Amino acid sequence: MEISQVATIAGKEFWDRIRNRWVLAVALVFTVFALVIAYFGAAQQGAVGFRSIELTIASLVSLVIYLIPLIALLLGFDAIVGERERGSLDLLLSMPITRFELILGKYLGLAAALTFSTVAGFGLVALVLARQIDLAALVHYFGFMVSSVLLGMAFLSLAVMLSVFAADRTRASGLAIALWFFFVLVFDLLLLGALVFSGGQAGGEVLPWLLLLNPADVFRILNIFGMDDVRTLYGLATVFPPALAEPWLLTLVMLGWIAAPLGVASWRFRK
Amino acid sequence: MESTTPAAAEALGQAAARPPRDAVIEARGAARHYGAVRAVDGVDLAVARGEVFGLIGHNGAGKSTLFRMMLGLVPPSAGEIRIAGAAVGGRDFRAVRRRIGYLPENVVLYDNLTGLETLHFFARLKGVPAAGCGALLDRVGLTHAAARRVREYSKGMRQRLGFAQALLGRPQILFLDEPTTGLDPEAIREFYLILRGLRAEGVTVVITSHILAEIQERVDRLAIMAAGRVQALGTVQELREQMDLPLWFEVRVADADFAAVRDALGSLPVAAIEARDGHVAVQVRREAKMAVFAALATLGDRVLDLSVREPSLEDVFFGFSD
Protein backbone atom coordinates (compact mmCIF):
# COMPACT_ATOMS: atom_id res chain seq x y z
CA MET A 1 0.00 0.00 0.00
CA GLU A 2 1.23 3.47 -0.84
CA ILE A 3 0.34 5.92 1.89
CA SER A 4 0.81 8.91 -0.41
CA GLN A 5 -2.02 7.70 -2.67
CA VAL A 6 -4.34 7.25 0.32
CA ALA A 7 -3.36 10.70 1.56
CA THR A 8 -4.04 12.33 -1.81
CA ILE A 9 -7.56 10.92 -1.98
CA ALA A 10 -8.22 11.64 1.70
CA GLY A 11 -6.91 15.18 1.35
CA LYS A 12 -9.23 15.89 -1.55
CA GLU A 13 -12.29 14.53 0.28
CA PHE A 14 -11.46 16.51 3.40
CA TRP A 15 -10.79 19.82 1.64
CA ASP A 16 -13.90 19.39 -0.50
CA ARG A 17 -15.94 19.31 2.74
CA ILE A 18 -14.09 22.29 4.17
CA ARG A 19 -14.53 24.32 1.00
CA ASN A 20 -18.22 23.64 0.56
CA ARG A 21 -18.70 24.56 4.25
CA TRP A 22 -20.05 21.14 5.15
CA VAL A 23 -17.69 20.92 8.13
CA LEU A 24 -18.66 24.38 9.33
CA ALA A 25 -22.40 23.70 9.02
CA VAL A 26 -22.27 20.40 10.91
CA ALA A 27 -20.04 21.86 13.63
CA LEU A 28 -22.52 24.70 14.10
CA VAL A 29 -25.41 22.26 14.38
CA PHE A 30 -23.56 20.34 17.10
CA THR A 31 -22.63 23.51 18.99
CA VAL A 32 -26.12 24.95 18.95
CA PHE A 33 -27.80 21.69 19.97
CA ALA A 34 -25.29 21.03 22.74
CA LEU A 35 -25.67 24.55 24.15
CA VAL A 36 -29.46 24.39 24.02
CA ILE A 37 -29.44 21.02 25.76
CA ALA A 38 -26.92 22.10 28.38
CA TYR A 39 -28.79 25.25 29.35
CA PHE A 40 -32.43 24.54 28.55
CA GLY A 41 -32.52 20.76 28.91
CA ALA A 42 -34.53 21.02 32.11
CA ALA A 43 -36.93 23.69 30.88
CA GLN A 44 -39.81 21.21 30.89
CA GLN A 45 -39.26 20.72 34.58
CA GLY A 46 -39.43 24.47 35.04
CA ALA A 47 -35.70 25.01 35.45
CA VAL A 48 -33.42 26.96 33.16
CA GLY A 49 -29.63 26.94 33.29
CA PHE A 50 -26.83 24.44 33.44
CA ARG A 51 -27.42 21.55 35.88
CA SER A 52 -24.96 18.65 35.94
CA ILE A 53 -22.59 17.41 33.27
CA GLU A 54 -24.00 13.89 33.58
CA LEU A 55 -27.55 14.94 32.83
CA THR A 56 -26.27 17.11 29.99
CA ILE A 57 -24.34 14.20 28.53
CA ALA A 58 -27.35 11.89 28.95
CA SER A 59 -29.47 14.33 26.97
CA LEU A 60 -26.75 14.81 24.39
CA VAL A 61 -26.44 11.04 23.98
CA SER A 62 -30.09 10.73 23.02
CA LEU A 63 -29.63 13.53 20.49
CA VAL A 64 -26.35 12.34 19.05
CA ILE A 65 -27.59 8.79 18.68
CA TYR A 66 -30.08 10.02 16.09
CA LEU A 67 -28.06 12.80 14.53
CA ILE A 68 -24.56 11.40 14.03
CA PRO A 69 -25.58 8.15 12.29
CA LEU A 70 -27.77 10.16 9.93
CA ILE A 71 -25.04 12.70 9.18
CA ALA A 72 -22.42 9.98 8.68
CA LEU A 73 -24.65 7.96 6.35
CA LEU A 74 -25.52 11.02 4.30
CA LEU A 75 -21.84 11.97 4.16
CA GLY A 76 -20.62 8.62 2.90
CA PHE A 77 -23.37 7.00 0.86
CA ASP A 78 -22.16 8.32 -2.50
CA ALA A 79 -18.41 7.99 -1.88
CA ILE A 80 -17.98 5.33 -4.57
CA VAL A 81 -21.36 5.12 -6.29
CA GLY A 82 -21.28 8.90 -6.83
CA GLU A 83 -17.97 8.71 -8.70
CA ARG A 84 -19.31 5.76 -10.66
CA GLU A 85 -22.56 7.48 -11.60
CA ARG A 86 -20.94 10.81 -12.53
CA GLY A 87 -18.44 8.91 -14.64
CA SER A 88 -15.26 9.96 -12.87
CA LEU A 89 -14.47 6.53 -11.39
CA ASP A 90 -12.80 5.09 -14.51
CA LEU A 91 -10.31 7.91 -14.67
CA LEU A 92 -9.51 7.56 -10.96
CA LEU A 93 -8.99 3.82 -11.28
CA SER A 94 -6.76 4.27 -14.33
CA MET A 95 -4.33 6.08 -12.03
CA PRO A 96 -1.58 4.13 -10.24
CA ILE A 97 -3.83 3.51 -7.25
CA THR A 98 -5.36 0.30 -5.93
CA ARG A 99 -9.03 -0.02 -5.14
CA PHE A 100 -8.20 -0.54 -1.49
CA GLU A 101 -6.19 2.68 -1.38
CA LEU A 102 -9.06 4.53 -3.03
CA ILE A 103 -11.65 3.26 -0.53
CA LEU A 104 -9.37 3.86 2.43
CA GLY A 105 -8.54 7.38 1.22
CA LYS A 106 -12.19 8.21 0.70
CA TYR A 107 -13.06 6.86 4.13
CA LEU A 108 -10.25 8.61 5.97
CA GLY A 109 -10.93 11.94 4.28
CA LEU A 110 -14.63 11.83 5.10
CA ALA A 111 -13.92 10.54 8.61
CA ALA A 112 -11.53 13.45 9.14
CA ALA A 113 -14.23 15.91 8.06
CA LEU A 114 -16.82 14.34 10.37
CA THR A 115 -14.37 14.12 13.26
CA PHE A 116 -13.32 17.72 12.78
CA SER A 117 -16.97 18.86 12.87
CA THR A 118 -17.76 16.75 15.92
CA VAL A 119 -14.73 17.84 17.90
CA ALA A 120 -15.07 21.49 16.90
CA GLY A 121 -18.81 21.57 17.57
CA PHE A 122 -18.81 19.82 20.94
CA GLY A 123 -15.37 21.15 21.87
CA LEU A 124 -16.65 24.71 21.65
CA VAL A 125 -19.35 23.82 24.15
CA ALA A 126 -16.73 22.27 26.42
CA LEU A 127 -14.91 25.59 26.44
CA VAL A 128 -18.12 27.37 27.40
CA LEU A 129 -18.83 24.84 30.16
CA ALA A 130 -15.25 24.65 31.40
CA ARG A 131 -15.70 27.36 34.00
CA GLN A 132 -18.71 25.66 35.55
CA ILE A 133 -17.49 22.07 35.82
CA ASP A 134 -14.57 20.28 37.42
CA LEU A 135 -11.89 18.20 35.79
CA ALA A 136 -13.66 14.87 36.31
CA ALA A 137 -16.72 16.22 34.54
CA LEU A 138 -14.55 17.47 31.69
CA VAL A 139 -13.05 14.02 31.36
CA HIS A 140 -16.57 12.58 31.15
CA TYR A 141 -17.44 15.10 28.48
CA PHE A 142 -14.24 14.25 26.63
CA GLY A 143 -15.22 10.58 26.74
CA PHE A 144 -18.57 11.49 25.26
CA MET A 145 -16.82 13.36 22.42
CA VAL A 146 -14.52 10.45 21.66
CA SER A 147 -17.41 7.99 21.61
CA SER A 148 -19.36 10.35 19.33
CA VAL A 149 -16.41 10.35 16.92
CA LEU A 150 -16.31 6.54 17.01
CA LEU A 151 -20.07 6.36 16.42
CA GLY A 152 -19.70 8.61 13.40
CA MET A 153 -16.82 6.57 12.03
CA ALA A 154 -18.76 3.31 12.42
CA PHE A 155 -21.76 4.61 10.49
CA LEU A 156 -19.48 6.22 7.93
CA SER A 157 -17.90 2.83 7.39
CA LEU A 158 -21.38 1.35 6.81
CA ALA A 159 -22.13 4.20 4.40
CA VAL A 160 -18.97 3.59 2.36
CA MET A 161 -19.81 -0.11 2.27
CA LEU A 162 -23.27 0.49 0.85
CA SER A 163 -21.84 2.98 -1.64
CA VAL A 164 -19.81 0.11 -3.08
CA PHE A 165 -22.78 -2.27 -3.25
CA ALA A 166 -25.45 0.13 -4.52
CA ALA A 167 -26.09 0.22 -8.26
CA ASP A 168 -26.84 3.94 -8.32
CA ARG A 169 -27.01 6.99 -6.08
CA THR A 170 -30.76 6.87 -5.65
CA ARG A 171 -30.64 3.34 -4.32
CA ALA A 172 -27.64 4.20 -2.18
CA SER A 173 -29.50 7.07 -0.52
CA GLY A 174 -32.52 4.82 0.04
CA LEU A 175 -30.29 2.18 1.59
CA ALA A 176 -28.65 4.79 3.79
CA ILE A 177 -32.01 5.87 5.19
CA ALA A 178 -33.04 2.23 5.62
CA LEU A 179 -29.86 1.49 7.57
CA TRP A 180 -30.49 4.49 9.76
CA PHE A 181 -34.06 3.34 10.46
CA PHE A 182 -32.91 -0.15 11.23
CA PHE A 183 -30.07 0.67 13.61
CA VAL A 184 -31.52 3.74 15.28
CA LEU A 185 -35.23 2.98 15.48
CA VAL A 186 -36.07 -0.64 14.66
CA PHE A 187 -33.27 -2.66 16.20
CA ASP A 188 -34.06 -1.89 19.85
CA LEU A 189 -37.76 -2.43 19.25
CA LEU A 190 -37.03 -5.85 17.78
CA LEU A 191 -35.00 -6.84 20.82
CA LEU A 192 -37.62 -5.47 23.14
CA GLY A 193 -40.34 -7.24 21.18
CA ALA A 194 -38.48 -10.53 21.42
CA LEU A 195 -38.11 -10.09 25.14
CA VAL A 196 -41.77 -9.23 25.69
CA PHE A 197 -43.00 -11.95 23.33
CA SER A 198 -41.11 -14.58 25.28
CA GLY A 199 -42.47 -13.23 28.55
CA GLY A 200 -39.05 -12.04 29.55
CA GLN A 201 -37.77 -15.63 29.68
CA ALA A 202 -36.04 -16.44 26.42
CA GLY A 203 -32.79 -14.75 25.73
CA GLY A 204 -32.73 -12.67 28.86
CA GLU A 205 -29.09 -13.55 29.29
CA VAL A 206 -28.16 -13.13 25.64
CA LEU A 207 -30.11 -9.98 24.97
CA PRO A 208 -27.65 -7.45 26.39
CA TRP A 209 -24.90 -8.99 24.27
CA LEU A 210 -27.08 -8.64 21.19
CA LEU A 211 -26.87 -4.91 21.74
CA LEU A 212 -23.27 -5.14 20.56
CA LEU A 213 -24.64 -5.89 17.09
CA ASN A 214 -25.69 -2.27 16.84
CA PRO A 215 -23.06 0.49 16.95
CA ALA A 216 -25.68 2.97 18.13
CA ASP A 217 -26.38 0.79 21.18
CA VAL A 218 -22.69 0.35 21.81
CA PHE A 219 -22.41 4.12 21.88
CA ARG A 220 -25.32 4.38 24.29
CA ILE A 221 -23.92 1.79 26.68
CA LEU A 222 -20.46 3.33 26.46
CA ASN A 223 -21.78 6.66 27.68
CA ILE A 224 -24.45 5.60 30.12
CA PHE A 225 -22.40 3.03 31.98
CA GLY A 226 -19.71 5.56 32.54
CA MET A 227 -21.98 7.52 34.86
CA ASP A 228 -23.44 6.43 38.18
CA ASP A 229 -26.22 9.03 38.22
CA VAL A 230 -27.47 8.13 34.83
CA ARG A 231 -27.18 4.40 35.34
CA THR A 232 -29.49 4.70 38.32
CA LEU A 233 -31.73 7.07 36.43
CA TYR A 234 -32.19 4.62 33.59
CA GLY A 235 -32.56 1.72 36.03
CA LEU A 236 -30.35 -0.37 33.84
CA ALA A 237 -27.59 -1.29 36.21
CA THR A 238 -29.22 -4.52 37.32
CA VAL A 239 -30.11 -5.78 33.87
CA PHE A 240 -26.69 -5.66 32.27
CA PRO A 241 -23.77 -8.01 32.69
CA PRO A 242 -20.93 -6.07 34.26
CA ALA A 243 -18.61 -7.03 31.43
CA LEU A 244 -20.59 -4.73 29.17
CA ALA A 245 -19.63 -1.78 31.32
CA GLU A 246 -15.98 -2.18 30.38
CA PRO A 247 -15.08 0.78 28.17
CA TRP A 248 -12.19 -1.09 26.53
CA LEU A 249 -14.48 -3.91 25.40
CA LEU A 250 -17.05 -1.51 24.03
CA THR A 251 -14.36 0.53 22.30
CA LEU A 252 -13.01 -2.65 20.75
CA VAL A 253 -16.48 -3.55 19.49
CA MET A 254 -16.79 -0.06 18.04
CA LEU A 255 -13.44 -0.41 16.26
CA GLY A 256 -14.74 -3.69 14.88
CA TRP A 257 -17.77 -1.83 13.57
CA ILE A 258 -15.41 0.58 11.82
CA ALA A 259 -13.12 -2.05 10.32
CA ALA A 260 -15.59 -4.75 9.28
CA PRO A 261 -17.79 -2.78 6.84
CA LEU A 262 -14.67 -1.21 5.30
CA GLY A 263 -13.20 -4.67 4.86
CA VAL A 264 -16.38 -5.91 3.18
CA ALA A 265 -16.46 -2.79 0.99
CA SER A 266 -12.88 -3.30 -0.12
CA TRP A 267 -13.46 -7.00 -0.84
CA ARG A 268 -16.55 -6.22 -2.90
CA PHE A 269 -14.92 -3.29 -4.72
CA ARG A 270 -12.08 -5.50 -5.92
CA LYS A 271 -14.54 -7.94 -7.50
CA MET B 1 -3.25 -5.50 -3.94
CA GLU B 2 -0.75 -4.31 -6.47
CA SER B 3 2.69 -3.44 -5.28
CA THR B 4 5.21 -1.25 -6.97
CA THR B 5 8.17 -2.99 -8.42
CA PRO B 6 10.67 -1.50 -10.81
CA ALA B 7 10.26 -4.48 -13.14
CA ALA B 8 7.46 -2.97 -15.18
CA ALA B 9 9.22 0.38 -15.43
CA GLU B 10 12.25 -1.48 -16.72
CA ALA B 11 10.03 -3.26 -19.18
CA LEU B 12 8.99 0.13 -20.53
CA GLY B 13 12.62 1.05 -20.90
CA GLN B 14 13.29 -2.21 -22.72
CA ALA B 15 10.34 -1.55 -24.99
CA ALA B 16 11.99 1.70 -25.94
CA ALA B 17 15.16 -0.11 -26.90
CA ARG B 18 13.44 -2.79 -28.99
CA PRO B 19 12.93 -2.49 -32.73
CA PRO B 20 10.04 -0.14 -33.56
CA ARG B 21 7.68 -2.91 -34.70
CA ASP B 22 7.83 -4.57 -31.30
CA ALA B 23 4.54 -4.66 -29.47
CA VAL B 24 3.89 -2.40 -26.49
CA ILE B 25 0.28 -3.52 -26.20
CA GLU B 26 -0.55 -7.15 -26.77
CA ALA B 27 -3.92 -8.83 -26.44
CA ARG B 28 -4.17 -12.60 -26.77
CA GLY B 29 -7.61 -14.11 -26.87
CA ALA B 30 -8.87 -11.31 -24.67
CA ALA B 31 -12.53 -11.81 -23.85
CA ARG B 32 -15.06 -10.27 -21.54
CA HIS B 33 -18.43 -11.88 -21.05
CA TYR B 34 -21.35 -10.46 -19.12
CA GLY B 35 -23.52 -13.51 -18.63
CA ALA B 36 -24.47 -14.63 -22.11
CA VAL B 37 -23.34 -11.35 -23.67
CA ARG B 38 -19.92 -11.57 -25.24
CA ALA B 39 -18.91 -7.90 -25.11
CA VAL B 40 -15.38 -8.75 -26.18
CA ASP B 41 -15.02 -12.16 -27.73
CA GLY B 42 -11.44 -13.27 -28.21
CA VAL B 43 -9.41 -10.32 -29.45
CA ASP B 44 -5.83 -10.67 -30.64
CA LEU B 45 -4.00 -7.40 -31.16
CA ALA B 46 -0.50 -6.04 -31.10
CA VAL B 47 0.23 -2.33 -31.09
CA ALA B 48 3.80 -1.33 -31.84
CA ARG B 49 5.73 1.28 -29.93
CA GLY B 50 5.28 4.74 -31.40
CA GLU B 51 2.25 3.70 -33.40
CA VAL B 52 -1.01 5.63 -33.60
CA PHE B 53 -3.59 2.89 -33.51
CA GLY B 54 -7.26 3.49 -34.24
CA LEU B 55 -10.08 1.43 -32.81
CA ILE B 56 -13.39 1.88 -34.55
CA GLY B 57 -16.76 0.22 -34.38
CA HIS B 58 -20.43 0.86 -33.85
CA ASN B 59 -21.73 1.54 -30.35
CA GLY B 60 -21.83 -1.82 -28.62
CA ALA B 61 -19.16 -3.30 -30.90
CA GLY B 62 -16.98 -3.91 -27.86
CA LYS B 63 -14.36 -1.22 -28.34
CA SER B 64 -15.12 0.57 -25.09
CA THR B 65 -14.97 -2.67 -23.13
CA LEU B 66 -11.69 -3.57 -24.85
CA PHE B 67 -10.41 -0.09 -24.01
CA ARG B 68 -11.36 -0.53 -20.37
CA MET B 69 -9.76 -3.99 -20.32
CA MET B 70 -6.48 -2.54 -21.62
CA LEU B 71 -6.55 -0.05 -18.76
CA GLY B 72 -7.20 -2.73 -16.17
CA LEU B 73 -10.63 -1.33 -15.31
CA VAL B 74 -12.37 -4.55 -16.32
CA PRO B 75 -10.66 -7.90 -15.79
CA PRO B 76 -10.77 -10.25 -18.78
CA SER B 77 -13.03 -13.30 -18.56
CA ALA B 78 -10.48 -15.15 -20.67
CA GLY B 79 -7.20 -14.45 -22.40
CA GLU B 80 -4.61 -11.90 -21.49
CA ILE B 81 -3.55 -8.35 -22.19
CA ARG B 82 0.01 -7.19 -21.59
CA ILE B 83 1.19 -3.62 -21.68
CA ALA B 84 4.90 -2.92 -21.78
CA GLY B 85 5.42 -6.53 -20.87
CA ALA B 86 3.32 -6.42 -17.70
CA ALA B 87 0.03 -8.25 -17.39
CA VAL B 88 -2.78 -5.73 -17.05
CA GLY B 89 -4.00 -5.69 -13.45
CA GLY B 90 -1.03 -7.77 -12.32
CA ARG B 91 1.55 -6.97 -9.68
CA ASP B 92 3.79 -4.93 -11.94
CA PHE B 93 0.99 -2.98 -13.54
CA ARG B 94 1.02 -0.05 -11.09
CA ALA B 95 4.39 1.08 -12.41
CA VAL B 96 3.07 0.81 -15.98
CA ARG B 97 0.05 2.93 -15.03
CA ARG B 98 2.36 5.82 -14.20
CA ARG B 99 3.41 5.80 -17.85
CA ILE B 100 -0.14 5.60 -19.22
CA GLY B 101 -2.26 8.61 -20.06
CA TYR B 102 -6.01 8.09 -20.35
CA LEU B 103 -8.70 10.38 -21.65
CA PRO B 104 -12.10 8.75 -21.11
CA GLU B 105 -15.00 9.34 -23.45
CA ASN B 106 -16.95 12.41 -22.23
CA VAL B 107 -14.39 12.95 -19.50
CA VAL B 108 -15.87 13.89 -16.13
CA LEU B 109 -13.69 15.99 -13.86
CA TYR B 110 -14.44 17.58 -10.50
CA ASP B 111 -16.67 20.64 -10.83
CA ASN B 112 -15.51 22.19 -7.57
CA LEU B 113 -11.82 22.23 -8.48
CA THR B 114 -10.14 24.79 -10.71
CA GLY B 115 -8.33 23.70 -13.85
CA LEU B 116 -4.96 23.93 -12.14
CA GLU B 117 -6.17 22.14 -8.99
CA THR B 118 -7.52 19.34 -11.17
CA LEU B 119 -4.10 18.81 -12.73
CA HIS B 120 -2.42 19.04 -9.31
CA PHE B 121 -4.72 16.33 -7.94
CA PHE B 122 -4.02 13.89 -10.77
CA ALA B 123 -0.33 14.81 -10.77
CA ARG B 124 -0.10 13.78 -7.12
CA LEU B 125 -1.82 10.46 -7.89
CA LYS B 126 0.60 9.87 -10.74
CA GLY B 127 3.59 10.89 -8.67
CA VAL B 128 4.43 13.70 -11.06
CA PRO B 129 5.85 17.06 -9.87
CA ALA B 130 3.14 19.73 -9.78
CA ALA B 131 5.52 22.20 -11.41
CA GLY B 132 4.72 21.00 -14.92
CA CYS B 133 0.96 21.54 -14.62
CA GLY B 134 1.02 25.17 -15.71
CA ALA B 135 2.93 24.33 -18.87
CA LEU B 136 0.44 21.57 -19.69
CA LEU B 137 -2.48 23.98 -19.33
CA ASP B 138 -0.65 26.26 -21.70
CA ARG B 139 -0.15 23.42 -24.15
CA VAL B 140 -3.91 22.83 -24.39
CA GLY B 141 -4.70 26.55 -24.41
CA LEU B 142 -6.29 26.84 -20.97
CA THR B 143 -3.87 29.17 -19.21
CA HIS B 144 -6.51 31.90 -19.09
CA ALA B 145 -8.91 29.55 -17.26
CA ALA B 146 -6.39 27.97 -14.87
CA ALA B 147 -7.94 29.60 -11.79
CA ARG B 148 -11.55 29.06 -12.85
CA ARG B 149 -13.60 26.21 -11.52
CA VAL B 150 -14.33 23.34 -13.90
CA ARG B 151 -18.03 24.01 -13.22
CA GLU B 152 -17.70 27.10 -15.42
CA TYR B 153 -15.88 25.27 -18.24
CA SER B 154 -17.50 24.59 -21.59
CA LYS B 155 -17.61 21.07 -22.99
CA GLY B 156 -14.61 21.77 -25.17
CA MET B 157 -12.61 23.24 -22.28
CA ARG B 158 -13.31 20.17 -20.16
CA GLN B 159 -12.12 17.99 -23.00
CA ARG B 160 -8.90 20.03 -23.26
CA LEU B 161 -8.37 19.79 -19.51
CA GLY B 162 -8.98 16.04 -19.72
CA PHE B 163 -6.36 15.85 -22.46
CA ALA B 164 -3.89 17.85 -20.35
CA GLN B 165 -4.55 15.38 -17.53
CA ALA B 166 -3.76 12.49 -19.89
CA LEU B 167 -0.44 14.13 -20.77
CA LEU B 168 0.69 14.41 -17.14
CA GLY B 169 4.09 12.84 -16.54
CA ARG B 170 4.98 12.47 -20.24
CA PRO B 171 3.16 9.16 -20.75
CA GLN B 172 4.63 6.60 -23.13
CA ILE B 173 1.22 5.16 -23.93
CA LEU B 174 -1.92 7.22 -24.48
CA PHE B 175 -5.47 5.89 -24.51
CA LEU B 176 -7.81 8.43 -26.03
CA ASP B 177 -11.50 7.57 -26.17
CA GLU B 178 -13.31 9.87 -28.59
CA PRO B 179 -10.85 12.66 -27.79
CA THR B 180 -12.25 15.32 -30.11
CA THR B 181 -15.87 15.19 -28.92
CA GLY B 182 -17.07 18.70 -28.23
CA LEU B 183 -14.03 20.40 -29.76
CA ASP B 184 -14.44 23.04 -32.45
CA PRO B 185 -12.58 22.53 -35.77
CA GLU B 186 -9.73 24.79 -34.71
CA ALA B 187 -9.26 22.86 -31.47
CA ILE B 188 -9.46 19.54 -33.33
CA ARG B 189 -6.64 20.71 -35.58
CA GLU B 190 -4.57 21.74 -32.56
CA PHE B 191 -5.30 18.41 -30.90
CA TYR B 192 -3.97 16.46 -33.86
CA LEU B 193 -0.92 18.73 -34.04
CA ILE B 194 -0.11 17.82 -30.44
CA LEU B 195 -0.73 14.17 -31.27
CA ARG B 196 1.66 14.37 -34.19
CA GLY B 197 4.30 15.84 -31.89
CA LEU B 198 3.78 13.02 -29.40
CA ARG B 199 4.05 10.43 -32.14
CA ALA B 200 7.36 11.99 -33.18
CA GLU B 201 8.52 11.54 -29.58
CA GLY B 202 7.73 7.83 -29.80
CA VAL B 203 4.52 7.87 -27.77
CA THR B 204 2.16 4.99 -28.53
CA VAL B 205 -1.43 6.13 -29.00
CA VAL B 206 -4.64 4.13 -29.05
CA ILE B 207 -7.51 6.26 -30.20
CA THR B 208 -11.21 5.72 -30.89
CA SER B 209 -13.38 8.00 -32.92
CA HIS B 210 -16.80 8.03 -34.46
CA ILE B 211 -15.64 10.55 -37.02
CA LEU B 212 -14.00 8.21 -39.48
CA ALA B 213 -12.95 10.88 -41.94
CA GLU B 214 -11.04 12.56 -39.11
CA ILE B 215 -9.24 9.46 -37.97
CA GLN B 216 -8.34 7.91 -41.34
CA GLU B 217 -5.62 10.44 -42.14
CA ARG B 218 -4.14 10.26 -38.67
CA VAL B 219 -3.72 6.64 -37.69
CA ASP B 220 -0.94 4.27 -38.71
CA ARG B 221 -3.16 1.25 -38.41
CA LEU B 222 -6.63 0.52 -37.21
CA ALA B 223 -8.88 -2.26 -36.09
CA ILE B 224 -12.53 -2.44 -36.99
CA MET B 225 -14.57 -4.11 -34.28
CA ALA B 226 -18.01 -5.64 -34.51
CA ALA B 227 -19.80 -8.10 -32.22
CA GLY B 228 -16.87 -8.14 -29.82
CA ARG B 229 -14.35 -9.26 -32.41
CA VAL B 230 -11.73 -7.57 -34.55
CA GLN B 231 -13.21 -7.91 -38.02
CA ALA B 232 -10.34 -6.26 -39.84
CA LEU B 233 -6.91 -4.98 -38.94
CA GLY B 234 -4.34 -3.03 -40.90
CA THR B 235 -3.53 0.32 -42.46
CA VAL B 236 -6.42 2.15 -44.07
CA GLN B 237 -5.00 1.16 -47.47
CA GLU B 238 -4.69 -2.49 -46.49
CA LEU B 239 -8.27 -2.51 -45.27
CA ARG B 240 -9.44 -1.00 -48.54
CA GLU B 241 -7.62 -3.73 -50.40
CA GLN B 242 -8.93 -6.46 -48.12
CA MET B 243 -12.43 -5.15 -48.54
CA ASP B 244 -11.89 -4.95 -52.29
CA LEU B 245 -14.22 -2.01 -52.64
CA PRO B 246 -14.50 -0.56 -56.15
CA LEU B 247 -12.84 2.75 -57.05
CA TRP B 248 -14.37 5.64 -58.91
CA PHE B 249 -12.60 7.27 -61.86
CA GLU B 250 -13.85 10.71 -62.71
CA VAL B 251 -12.85 11.67 -66.23
CA ARG B 252 -13.46 14.98 -67.90
CA VAL B 253 -13.12 14.67 -71.70
CA ALA B 254 -13.37 17.26 -74.48
CA ASP B 255 -16.96 17.91 -75.53
CA ALA B 256 -18.12 15.69 -72.67
CA ASP B 257 -17.83 12.80 -75.10
CA PHE B 258 -19.37 9.98 -73.09
CA ALA B 259 -19.21 7.51 -75.95
CA ALA B 260 -15.47 8.06 -76.45
CA VAL B 261 -14.78 7.04 -72.87
CA ARG B 262 -17.07 4.03 -73.09
CA ASP B 263 -15.41 2.89 -76.29
CA ALA B 264 -11.92 3.40 -74.89
CA LEU B 265 -12.73 1.19 -71.93
CA GLY B 266 -13.96 -1.41 -74.37
CA SER B 267 -14.14 -4.84 -72.80
CA LEU B 268 -12.63 -3.89 -69.42
CA PRO B 269 -14.67 -5.14 -66.44
CA VAL B 270 -16.37 -1.88 -65.54
CA ALA B 271 -18.89 -2.06 -62.70
CA ALA B 272 -20.70 1.12 -63.65
CA ILE B 273 -20.31 4.00 -66.04
CA GLU B 274 -22.44 7.09 -65.95
CA ALA B 275 -22.42 10.63 -67.24
CA ARG B 276 -22.47 13.21 -64.50
CA ASP B 277 -22.56 16.95 -65.00
CA GLY B 278 -19.65 17.55 -67.38
CA HIS B 279 -17.67 14.37 -66.62
CA VAL B 280 -17.86 10.63 -66.84
CA ALA B 281 -17.81 8.56 -63.67
CA VAL B 282 -16.48 5.04 -63.98
CA GLN B 283 -16.61 2.47 -61.20
CA VAL B 284 -14.06 -0.31 -61.47
CA ARG B 285 -12.64 -3.03 -59.30
CA ARG B 286 -9.27 -2.36 -57.77
CA GLU B 287 -7.40 -4.91 -59.89
CA ALA B 288 -8.58 -3.19 -63.07
CA LYS B 289 -7.21 0.16 -61.93
CA MET B 290 -4.05 0.21 -64.05
CA ALA B 291 -5.81 -1.25 -67.07
CA VAL B 292 -8.34 1.59 -66.89
CA PHE B 293 -5.51 4.11 -66.71
CA ALA B 294 -3.93 2.59 -69.79
CA ALA B 295 -7.22 2.58 -71.67
CA LEU B 296 -7.93 6.20 -70.81
CA ALA B 297 -4.41 7.12 -71.91
CA THR B 298 -5.34 6.09 -75.44
CA LEU B 299 -7.65 9.12 -75.51
CA GLY B 300 -4.54 11.28 -75.39
CA ASP B 301 -5.09 14.99 -74.86
CA ARG B 302 -8.82 14.61 -75.20
CA VAL B 303 -8.72 13.85 -71.46
CA LEU B 304 -8.90 17.23 -69.77
CA ASP B 305 -8.88 16.04 -66.18
CA LEU B 306 -8.78 12.79 -64.28
CA SER B 307 -9.19 11.87 -60.65
CA VAL B 308 -9.44 8.59 -58.78
CA ARG B 309 -11.54 8.40 -55.68
CA GLU B 310 -10.54 5.68 -53.20
CA PRO B 311 -13.29 4.30 -51.00
CA SER B 312 -13.37 6.25 -47.75
CA LEU B 313 -12.80 4.68 -44.36
CA GLU B 314 -16.52 4.99 -43.95
CA ASP B 315 -17.14 2.73 -46.96
CA VAL B 316 -14.58 0.27 -45.62
CA PHE B 317 -16.06 0.44 -42.15
CA PHE B 318 -19.59 -0.28 -43.28
CA GLY B 319 -18.27 -3.05 -45.49
CA PHE B 320 -16.69 -4.80 -42.50
CA SER B 321 -19.14 -4.07 -39.76
CA ASP B 322 -22.38 -4.87 -41.60
Automatic annotation (TrEMBL), chain A:
Gene Ontology CC: one annotated term: plasma membrane
GO molecular function: ABC-type transporter activity
Transmembrane residue ranges: 22-43, 55-81, 102-129, 141-165, 177-197, 248-269
Keywords assigned: Membrane, Transmembrane, Transmembrane helix
Protein name, as recorded: ABC transporter permease
Species: Pseudothauera rhizosphaerae
